[in-house]
Amino acid sequence: METIKVLELFAGLGGFHIAVNNQRDANIQVIKSFEINVNAVKTYQENFGYDVISNRNILSLSTEELIRQNVNAIFMSPPCQPFTRLGKKLDVNDDRCNAFHHVLKLLPRTPNIQYLLIENVYGFESSKMRENMLEILQSSGFYTIEFLLSPTDFGVPNSRLRYYLLARKNKKFTFCKHDPPSILKEFTYCTCGGISLHDQSSICSNCQREVNTKISSLVQQNTGNMKQSFLVNTSKLHSYLDEKTDIEQYAVPDKILLRYGNILDLRTFQDSSSCCFTKGKHFVN
Ligand SMILES: C[S@@+](CC[C@H](N)C(=O)[O-])C[C@H]1O[C@@H](n2cnc3c(N)ncnc32)[C@H](O)[C@@H]1O
């Protein structure tokens, strides 16, 4: 089986690196990663060692260097601020898109890159940047498939709808019967490798067997650490909390509770849901 050698760009704390390490099969490996933020790099180094990550501006990456890296895949989460629903939505006119554009422009001249995995916020799917990206990928010989998925689709108790793109060079994804709709929110797949894109049409055109397997089982099959219970019920928040932590230090002050208690979105250990927020001043106190 071909080994997938990953270059992780906009690496942050290494979310993709954890996902790669969680793969049951050892045929995928993060070879190198780039990140501009010094504190993120320090955290990444604590998690994955000092050799893999470079504190670099991705704008300085050249075609020659990308070829020299000896990788065949790029996994990346480019900055999402240009596309967030609560932001200014400057899209391609936001300078924070420059490094993303830069990487895409290298692709037609880097034949070694055969696979891409790109993640971004909900909102990216309707951006001009996505249109530009698809144009470049298609003209560079990539076939693509796009998803809008949340951890809750996999039984993980956190709502975080995100855009994902998979791209593969010169090789179509195997679909049953139809070409895919533009962005998938759910699909069923067949163990033969075929995918059925329609909840009702459950016969795989590849092997003619019935397929009714949800995306969560595809993850279960390929990773070693997803608990079976996740696939049926959403797990509880306590499975993700560190028991040894002194939670008193994070307690919300009484003053805030008295003032905002009735509008705060409070969760307990036993809850099966949570949501994300960023530092928007109305949301964090
Ligand atoms: C959406 S976050 C990535 C999150 C990451 N997937 C993780 O698991 O933490 C985008 C990251 O891109 C980094 N970044 C932004 N512009 C960059 C550039 N020009 N070169 C390198 N890194 C950059 C930011 O510092 C930030 O950590």
TrEMBL record:
UniProt KW keywords: Methyltransferase, S-adenosyl-L-methionine, Transferase
Matching PROSITE patterns: SAM_MT_C5
Residues at the catalytic site: 80
GO molecular function: methyltransferase activity
GO term, biological process aspect, one: methylation
GO cellular component, one term: nucleus
TM ranges: none
Similarity annotation: Belongs to the class I-like SAM-binding methyltransferase superfamily. C5-methyltransferase family.
PANTHER family in alphabetical order: TRNA (CYTOSINE(38)-C(5))-METHYLTRANSFERASE (PTHR46098)
Protein name (record): Uncharacterized protein
Origin species: Artemia franciscana
